[in-house]
Amino acid sequence: MNELVPQPPGMTAAAWRKVTGWDSIRQGYADYLHDESRLHVPSEAGATASRVEAIHFPTTAQEVAGAVRAARRAGHRVTVSGGRTGLTGAAVPLDAEEVIALERIKPKPVVRRSRDGAWVVRVGAGTTLAELTDALDHGLCQYPDGKPGRPLFYPVDSTEATAQLGGNIATNASGARTLHYGPTRRWVNWLKLVTADGRILELGRGQVTAEGGLILYRREDGSAAELRIPDLPMPMTKHTAGYYLKPGMDAVDLFIGSEGTLGIVVEAELRLTEKPANRLFLTQFLDGAEACVELVQAWKGRPDLPPIALEYIGPRAMALVRSMGRQTPAYVEVSRLPADAAAALYAEVAFEDEAQLDAIYASLKEMLAEVGLDPAHSWAGFTEKDVEEMKRLRHAVPETVNSIIARRQARVPELHKVGTDMAVPDESLGAMMDFYRRRLEECGLEFVMFGHVGDGHVHVNILPRAAAELEQGEELYMEFAAEAVRLGGSVAGEHGIGRIKKVFLPIQFGEADLAAMRAIKQALDPDTTLNPGVLFDL
Amino acid sequence: MHIVVCIKQVPDTAEVRIDPERGTLIREGVPSILNPLDAYAVEGAVALTERNGGTATALCMGPPQAEAALREAIARGCDRAILLTDRAFAGADTWSTSYALACAVRKLGDVDLVFCGKQAIDGDTAQVGPGLAVHLGWPQATYVRRIIEATDEAVAVERLTDWGNETLRVGLPAVLTVLKDLNFPRLPSLVSQMQARRCPVERWGAGDIDGDAAQFGLDGSPTRVVKVFTPPVRGACVVWQGEPQKTAAKLIETLRREALI
After folding, report:
1. Whole-structure pTM value
2. Is A53 found in the same domain as A124?
């Protein structure tokens, strides 16, 4: 079947919580006016740019549909709001008059067996990643088919634990473990969505596919809109920029990663997987970036050492965190760093039993020796506690960058960090990292590099000291994006496009491809009710 | 110098959840960990042997699975690990536990110094370290935050008290219980973790430590739990709502009036 047929929501009393009036919102609900990007709705008294007149807190799909319908009746547009941990401003209601916050849609997760025997969990959009993990770990879900025999987990670990699952799906979130487990897309079985016209669409994987490059959307008046699915040149890397479009694609994939522009995710069924029996966590210290590229390449050539995650902390990032002394939240970890640890590669490897661990250790020693590294020059552990300590060092990098920028903003308010998000194929990792470093050094900019090196996805954070440097940094970002695409990569590996990265879409896709995307948006949301200003300016 | 570090395996209390419907503790998915405060004792002992020479022996009383805590101590630099494990020790209170540990220390024979963490995060009694010193008849310094000097005869330490820091010189052998301020416990390397996983952990039973069997385990424990209860809430609670600045000012004014600040 290739037809999407949303259902009317039925009668709903408008009983959900709702906050109205710009003044009440500005004063009491300022959190809903920004995310973790630099964007925010100006909240100064008298600001005229802001027109947010209502925030809805629905608890069910029917109520979300009711809120959408109410907004439409008033001629209003809607911004969908999740955990607001995004970095691209998609949840910032700059062009919308109403906000629908999904945080109250969090029924107790239901863990059951699906028809194919796999374990799945049904969650509300407002459940956070941390809450789901906690419920799974401590047996706090509902278990209509009985409890699973082995511990299960949801493996996508987008860095922010307060991220809500609805947001994770809308942005096709990924994280350190994406290297092994893939992004959110791979784990979504079924979605309950509210459409732009305020109806409810339940959509299971395998139910609706783009037969002959076409998906039909049944409008409320019974007529059908045609969604033409072109064959887009998709990069073979982590990628979250624009709509996912592929011949014969599953319609579920159209909504995943669409950043709330095609429908509002209110409920989802996610696949679960068995927790690895044991994991080895390793932070291998390095003398520089070259050693990291060499080690990653050696590692990826070893089928006997499948890593769950490979994360990088570059020399400048390490030096910056060290320079913070007691001011960094990772002060304890930093104090324990070996003096000559210039950079680091963090890795996770699963193992079943001691015999397998022995084999892994032998392979690790062999591989490290091949690239001239000493396994004693490392941190290693087997418990969650161990990994927490190691991760604090990794998290200290963006935290340190943010605090330095905040200090500079006191002097030059318009300054902000320039955080890049390109991913390139494995074979181009070294070339891309060299390109970053060479150009940044030529421009004399302050920067750090860190991130998902195993996925060819290293983040560059530029720390401008003055307005001119900010401009230069943003120009470099464009240059980097073009280079990443030239190398077969993506302009946005995981942060998405949102509002602030729209300029990168034309670098990734040709005008015809973008027109096809806009046509899909127009077919599903002709009045641009949902997330106006996100992905495209329409 | 031979240093013994006494450690305990405890449930990770940060992972304990309360069942919202029943109001009871959920034990499922709660991992066992090395008592976090003991990591400072391990680091203190290991650092001292690295500086002054000697060996560090980790000692733990508990069920067989407590071996994992001892392996962690090895990974963090201890040279030897001994697990006191026997059904005869089951149900021991702090008196009986410190008695059994003291017997083991005495059995080791050449011990100069015992390090303990300030307290364990499950029972929070802070009694085992001092109890050990009493059973051994050794001097003790509790709440140690700094080791100023250590020789073969004595250690000079700074301990935290309610009224400030106190500097003590303690003749050896002695028992120290230590605070977080003492050091930054190291993170083990891949090599040391793997060595720890493969090294032998000695197991000693009640028959191996030459003690008075009547003092072991539940029978040797004078502590009786008469009742477990939640203390009643004392005093009325006042909730102020309003502008943060005004409310904060009101709070400060009230605390001043009540002479609390």
Report:
1. 0.89
2. no
